[in-house]
Amino acid sequence: MAENILVVGGGPAGLHSAVTLADIGANVSLVERDSFLGGNPKKFKYKFLFPDMQPADDVIGELIKRAEKNDGVKIYYSSNVSNFKENEKKFDVTIKSPDASETKTFDSVIVATGFEHFDPARDAKYSYQLFDDVIDIKDLERMMGENNFVRPSNGQPPKNVAFILCVGSRDRHVGNQYCSRVCCTVSVKQAIELRERFPDCDAYIFYMDIRTYGFFEDLYWKAMEEHDVQIVKGRIAEITSGPNNTVICKGEDTLLRGPFEIPFDMVVLASGMEGGPQSSEMVDKLGLELNEHGFLKPQNVTLAPFKSNRKGIFLAGACTGPKAISDSIVEGGAAAMDAYIYAVKNK
Amino acid sequence: MALKEQEKRPVAAKGEHIIARHLIEDDYIKEEKNLVIDGVDVSGRWNTFIFSRVNPKFDRSFFSEIKKTVVGSRINRCWQCGMCTASCTVTPLHRRFNPRAFIYMMQLGNMKELKKYVDVAWRCVGCYKCSQRCPKQVNPAEMMEALALVMKKYFPEEVESKLKVDEDVKKIYEDMILGNGRLDLAKLHISSMRKMGRTKELVDRIEGGAVLKMVKDGRAFSLLQLGKPHGWKKSRQAIEGYLKKVDTIEKN
Ligand SMILES: Cc1cc2nc3c(=O)[nH]c(=O)nc-3n(C[C@H](O)[C@H](O)[C@H](O)COP(=O)(O)OP(=O)(O)OC[C@H]3O[C@@H](n4cnc5c(N)ncnc54)[C@H](O)[C@@H]3O)c2cc1C
Ligand code: SF4
Ligand code: SF4
Ligand code: SF4
After folding, report:
1. What is the pTM of this model?
2. Domain count, chain A
């Protein structure tokens, strides 16, 4: 009889886990809390993905199609795990769907519940939700995705835009000390898109460090060298309203010393990633552990990055920390392997 | 007695009473020494006003202007790592000469800052060490040329007043070139020492030795009567023509 494996979360990581497992003959149940698959990239309608500007539809759409078409994957939409019990190295799990509740026994489990976008409204200094023209990178992704990029305050195209990095990351004040890893690359990518679409709109990036690690560096160079995106060193400490319907960024020019207050038509906050309430939910329901940053904690970050603290439960994707889609997909495959081995060994 | 002293008190320096006054630049403080509004005397500190520090904007038009020049075309590449300044021949001697910072000011069109460096902006000796080191191939050495163009164009008065060409030295220099077709370093050195009133030193061990050395190793060419370079007449005419042209351009 085929192995029964549960995958929680239908983002890039969970989708790839599910399809990989089904391809080697397992019976997969994929539980997704939303009414659609694809995770955050789908939910916030990312349009073009770094590093190579592939249309998100081609990547995420393809992952979804593979899962939906696969007979070995049973998808539970708008569902969640309501009851979870270990039973002699197997797991009795109740899956609650809108119109049914089903209890099954699984040989192993993959948790791929992903991340939440940091809500910039939590950090009052950035005046998010106070001024219409202060948005964040997920809002901008969505606006670009909907082909509707204008100043929210007046519907006009902006003449200059400031990106502010490290919003909700690397800041004790908001409780997040870690680097969210993708926001630098997302910001330079968006600055390029902006300059491509609106050559008359200047783009500035306020940074403390630019962490476009590995080959993502190409986008950073491209933004400067081909699109004249200007980087300015200094973190913005305050956003206030300015003359002529502008928003003012107050910061320090740390290269020349001294404060500045520059008005912009629009400000884009590079808000980071958080473990979100779903990580705590997995801790409560499945008996997992959180790390000091609020993400799910692997048994050993180096030797066993996909194993959780509980035997038979595995972790994949952004639920264990900020990462890119490619990493999440790689982890989905790796966790699938771990979960399959566990299931086969304990039959 | 106390009153008398008070009357004699000198007029307050601008913004004197502001706490942590040193944090605010002079330009940002407006204060009228004598001001009466509606019959009320609001002289001195009573009318002190601190301008908002809101910069009008980063001036990208300036950036575009630089970028269009041959020497400044790579201004968009610079990410301010400072390898140029770190390797610069001149910076250790003139700490205010900082290629990295100048490029940044040009990127952001920060004319207010740039203006403060009119006196040192010309110090580049063209050794190209910076360009050899620069990881982004910005070619900062040539960016310093762009800087010189900027200074001339936007701050002509400051350039005129702060950078006085020493006419005597210029004449010696030109005479040497036009007369012999060669620079006579020993002669140049001697005339500059003379100008500084240091003729005595010329015969001491160090200076005298240096002159002797120049003669020996051939740097003091005309002293050895090497003669003019081949086909000098033509070159000389070209140089004279050029100098005349520059002269008329500068006069206009
Ligand atoms: C603004 C922004 C732009 C980005 N752009 C790019 C890019 O261009 N290229 C790139 O490589 N990466 C990008 N990333 C990173 C990318 O979003 C993540 O790497 C990726 O989404 C992680 O995939 P995941 O499957 O681990 O998590 P998620 O995408 O978060 O998916 C998790 C899924 O689990 C579901 N879920 C959560 N909790 C439960 C639960 N309790 N029960 C059931 N289901 C649950 C969620 O609904 C969701 O569908 C970007 C990130 C941000 C913030
Ligand atoms: S990726 Fe960049 S913007 Fe994001 S937290 Fe790290 S340094 Fe800050
Ligand atoms: S010019 Fe080159 S070396 Fe100098 S700061 Fe810019 S990138 Fe660095
Ligand atoms: S070329 Fe000019 S700026 Fe560059 S290292 Fe030499 S003196 Fe310094």
Report:
1. 0.83
2. 2
